[in-house]
Amino acid sequence: MKNARRLRRGAHRAPTLTGFDAHRAGVERLLASYRAIPTNTDVRLAKKTSNLFRARARTRAPGLDVSGLSGVISIDPQARTADVAGMCTYEDLVDATLPYGLAPLVVPQLKTITLGGAVTGLGIESTSFRNGLPHESVLEMDILTGSGDIVTATPEGENSDLFWGFPNSYGTLGYATRLRIQLEPVKPYVALRYLRFDSLDELQAVMDRVVNDHVYDGTSVDYLDGVVFTEAESYLVLGHQTDEAGPLSDYTGENIYYRSIQHSSVEHPKTDKLTIRDYLWRWDTDWFWCSRAFGAQNPTIRRLWPKRLLRSSFYWKLVALDRRYGIGDRREKLAGNPLRERVVQDVEVPIERTTDFLRWFLAEIPIEPLWLCPLRLREPTPAGASSQRPWPLYPLEPKRTYVNIGFWSSVPIVPGEPEGAANRLIEDKVTEFDGHKSLYSDAFYSREDFERLYYGGDRYAGLKKHYDPDSRLLDLFSKAVLRR
Questions:
Q1: 390, HSE (Cβ side, Cα atoms, 13 Å)
Q2: What is the 3-state secondary structure (H, E, C) of 37-58?
Q3: Distance of CA 224 to the CA centre of its chain
Q4: CA-to-CA distance for 217 and 30, rounded, in angstroms?
Q5: Strand runs (DSSP E) across 243-322, as ranges?
Q6: Which pLDDT belongs to residue 163?
Q7: Closest Cα to residue 301, out of 290, 310, 288, 312?
Q8: Are 82 and 72 within 8 A, CB to CB?
Q9: How many C-beta neighbours within 10 Å does residue 9 have?
Q10: CA distance 2 to 108
Q11: Does residue 194 form part of some domain?
Q12: Could you give the CA distance from residue 287 to residue 314 in angstroms, rounded to a whole number?
């Protein structure tokens, strides 16, 4: 238990396992709420929080009751698996698994992202260069489909087509009520090295080598991501799991994680050490770097800001208020400034095109920093999958390395330009570079282009017809682009 306590250092609570009886009761409430929704009304989740950045049409229609689907159901330490309710947050899941010396194979970087959300909407983090994406560690799922049935989807079972088609469907084929996922062993601490580059070409080359070798300078690399500030200042963050204790950093208070990276130099790379829990949530305290928009990185304000509110879920509430009341637009008008276009995106490009995309972006879009996160689909390709593009709605190629590039800010609107001009420009460039864009934020594709990129040929239409024959759920284009 000593090792478990070390793994749990910094946790705020120890979630209890809900058990299958409580989970079944939650599913019954969900089904009852589904039956109560009028048949001529779109089915939506009734939840108070979201990590989506798409504006949506407001509705007063009742939603699905997911209040009983928010916990960890069961953990099997020997099999290294967990049964998890679809609305369970990764924060709760991590706090439940760390006492066993285990963690999910991929832990998305914000605490309130849910398991169901990460699988149906994709997620990524610094283990993705070796563990792929969250849906690749799923062994089976129970899914409430548009027809009102709960079906179990597995890689080779009766509903295997839904298993492979569920990722990137964003709730348009159904909602996961239970997921059985794989876990991996973790150690109590993560030792970090920050490598600074003054050349994007060199950064790309080193990142490519580490992805392939999982080693740098004789030390294994368990975690890998990076940050680009300018073309002449970029960093890779290399993490190595360790049992060795020692001085630990804390970025949950006044110290700002992404700024600490800049203390490294080419000649003298900075080293650091965090508990495993603090490492997994190192970006959450400042929502990467977006807390600066609220003044939370001003030293005076930061000292007064309650520590419990230094977290992404609170910043998201501030964004929701701004969107509802147009606070930012009013402020820009009063200052005589142009209104601003929100540019909040994660895109993937093949690693060999990373430098080209970064140079284009830094020259055309006035946003910095940029987050980098390399990824590869897990190998070998699981049984029951297509050997060429196993996940049809987000068709990454096996044995090919991609780099996720994240940017979360806004740019001035140029008079006369169409709505979403900067976003449209980025979409075109990503497609030109044989990349993909995540759909959690605003999208401006034509229907033809969108279906070509995200419908997996005729796969999505077939799944929609089979599992949502009466179109109770929105279709993917309506949800992602039309923002209904």
A1: 21
A2: CCCCCCCCEECCCCCCCCCCCC
A3: 15
A4: 52
A5: 270-275
A6: 96
A7: 310
A8: yes
A9: 15
A10: 27
A11: no
A12: 10
**What's the chain's Rg over C-alpha atoms?**
22
443-452, Cβ contacts within 8 angstroms, sequence gap of 24 or more? 443/54, 443/480, 443/481, 444/419, 444/420, 444/481, 445/481, 447/477, 447/481, 450/476, 450/477, 450/480, 450/481, 451/477
Residue 249 belongs to a domain: no
pLDDT at position 388 is 61
Record the tokens describing residue 219, joined without a space.
């030390």
89-120 per-position pLDDT tens digit? 999 999 999 999 999 999 999 999 999 999 99
Residues contacting residue 155 through CB under 8 Å, at least 6 positions apart: 163, 164, 382, 383, 384, 385
What pLDDT shows up at residue 266?
A: 87
Q: State the distance between the two ends of the chain, measured CA to CA, in whole angstroms.
A: 50
pTM higher than 0.70, yes or no? yes
Q: Look at residue 88 and tell me if it is in a domain.
A: yes
Number of Cβ within 10 Å of residue 191's Cβ equals: 19
HSE at residue 400, side-chain half, CA atoms within 13 A, is: 17
| Residue ranges of the chain with per-residue pLDDT less than 50 | 1-5, 8-11
Question: Is the distance from CB of 290 to CB of 110 less than 8 angstroms?
Answer: no
Residue 106 lies in a domain: yes
Domain that holds residue 81: 10-185
pLDDT at 324: 79
Residue 7: predicted pLDDT: 55
In terms of DSSP H, where are the helices of 257-311?
257-261, 276-280, 299-304
Question: How many distinct structural domains can be found in the chain?
Answer: 1
Read out DSSP for 351-384?
GGGHHHHHHHHHHHS----EEEEEE---SSPPTT
Q: What's residue 57's pLDDT?
A: 55
Q: Residue 309: how many CB atoms within 10 A of its CB? A: 12
Instruction: Identify the CATH number of the domain in which residue 68 sits.
Output: 3.30.465.10
